[in-house]
Amino acid sequence: MLGIAVAALLATAVAACNSATTTTTTTTTTLPPLPPQVYAYVTMIGFPGSNIGLGHTVVPVNISVGGNGAETPVSVGTYPDAIAITPDGARAYVTNYTSNSVTPIDLVTGKALPSIALGANAGPAGIAITPDGTKAYVTDAGATGTLGDTVTPIDLATGKTLAPITVGPGPEGIAITPNGQRAYVADSGAFVPGQTGAIGSTVTPVDLTTGKALPAILVGHVPAAVAISPNGSTALVANVNSGSVSPIDISTDKAGSPISVQGGPVSIAISASDPTTAWVADGVSTASKTGNVTPISLTSDTAGSPIAVGNNPQAIAVSPDGTTAWVVCYQSETLVPVNTKTQKPGVPIHLSGGPYAIALVSRSTSSTTTTTTPSKKKKG
Length: 380
Description:
380 residues, five-stranded antiparallel beta sheet, 37 strands
């Protein structure tokens, strides 16, 4: 009996030694950095003739190399007139002209947040965000039949509006200097159909440290958009009815000689990657049915040859690396890339629904992977 018991015990020990025990090994590997994903956020205001002004979405478009194009639209207010993105790329803010509100969008989740209400007849048009990301400034163009004349600051930490700043009549475009001390506001006047009053021809500087408007600067007829050079020395103003761009010396607040372009310039973009060139979208071309983009040399203040894009270009933005100017063409419902080196347009991306305004953001992608694998201990 004892021998049998000992033999059984030895057999059990050998079996236990020969059994395999499974464990888990986790390995973290750092890969080379991946190129960032670049997204265009395009507002949709509705197509002309059927539902113009009734659009209420923003469409994210992956414009990276190999990107998948348009993605699921985000619902905002009615007639999303303009869009700006915070410096950290976390949020976009959309002005809803007909809804008299501003809608924040969480760009991480892709969800719209509760809208920020403005005045009943505000008619929010342009928007610019300070370099530190603490405030947005919204131009109040006024609703149909009512001409606005203020800029409303918004505290982005609280979502609360602050005391409005009086500027010129019918303010549309706005840009803020890189040091965050000044804003330049395009006083378009009665530019929106249905408004009564004279067309505008001034730009109003605003001291953002005091919240006070400074003396207006005379430019061309119907200034609609403003862009500021990356070094903060010059403000460029698109004069729709004058077919020109006015450079303003920010140190003196004096306008220089206007630079003639083809058509009616409605939007301007300058990239920090190439601060020597401004890109101008000509909303109405007198030379052909196709609208143009015109490069302007900021070293010589001269316009280059116009580049044919789609019909009725309304907005333009330059990619973070400065290689591509992206043009929103409203009438042809396209987003057209223009190579800034060759100055040739690429294959357009179709965006149905009346594309109107644009903002770009670069998203970094993870370069770290974690792998979990099972392993076995050696048999005993």
